[in-house]
Specification:
This protein has eight helices and no strands. The longest helix is centred in the last third of the chain and has 26 residues. Helix content is 57%, strand content 0%. It is mainly α. It has a domain of 133 residues: Nucleotidyltransferases  domain 2 (Four Helix Bundle (Hemerythrin (Met), subunit A), Up-down Bundle), CATH 1.20.120.
């Protein structure tokens, strides 16, 4: 993969090391190796695995996961959202602008649903209106606005107005790049909630 830089204007500014770590190793405390064996955390390795997080009783007392919340499900779904955002960047680089926008839509949805899993223990029902989903899960207004920008790119909605063969022609590279930025802001918001809840 090309090196990615932290530049707000660059659609590829995903932190590559962190993304690769999340995708390959799952989410874990960065200091696992230095912990005693009874305090190490086992992270989710796949979205379908039956892995569990093992923590000491002391760590469990400090966890702020709401009762009924699904931390493991939230972490897995957030990892999927991160992967979708990386794929959106690749699609943008290949000139497939609708595919980029679609992956941005999916990344935002999965990030918000990860928050829903953490807060409520289940995914929130909605009708492809990402702003409404954002409101359901308690996203701030500016995040709801970013989600609203991405709402039209659910394939069912988009293809109702645009033939598939014209999809990439109606979205410019600049527009697709701005959708990557919107999705990135949604993921940053969700990250502060999901990743800080268990670790």
């Amino acid at each position: 993969m090309p090196q990615m830089h932290a530049n707000e204007g660059d659609p590829y500014d995903i932190d590559q090391d962190e993304l690769e770590r999340l995708l390959l190793e799952g989410v874990s405390s960065s200091s696992d190796e230095s912990r005693p064996q009874d305090q190490r955390t086992v992270s989710p390795q796949s979205r379908h695995g039956n892995t569990r997080s093992y923590k000491s009783e002391e760590e469990d007392e400090d966890t702020e996961t709401p009762t009924g919340g699904d931390l493991q499900g939230a972490l897995g779904l957030f990892a999927e959202a991160t992967q979708d955002l990386a794929t959106a960047g690749l699609e943008l680089g290949l000139g497939r602008h609708f595919a980029c926008a679609d992956y941005c839509n999916q990344a935002a949805e999965k990030a918000a649903q990860a928050v829903s899993l953490l807060r409520f223990g289940h995914r929130s029902m909605y009708d492809h209106d990402l702003r409404a989903l954002g409101a359901l899960v308690g996203a701030p207004e500016e995040i709801q606005e970013e989600m609203a920008i991405l709402t039209p790119f659910h394939p069912e909605t988009f293809y109702a107005e645009t033939p598939p063969e014209e999809a990439d022609d109606v979205i410019s590279a600049e527009q697709a790049s701005s959708y990557v930025q919107s999705a990135r802001r949604v993921l940053r918001w969700a990250r502060t909630i999901v990743l800080s809840s268990g670790y």
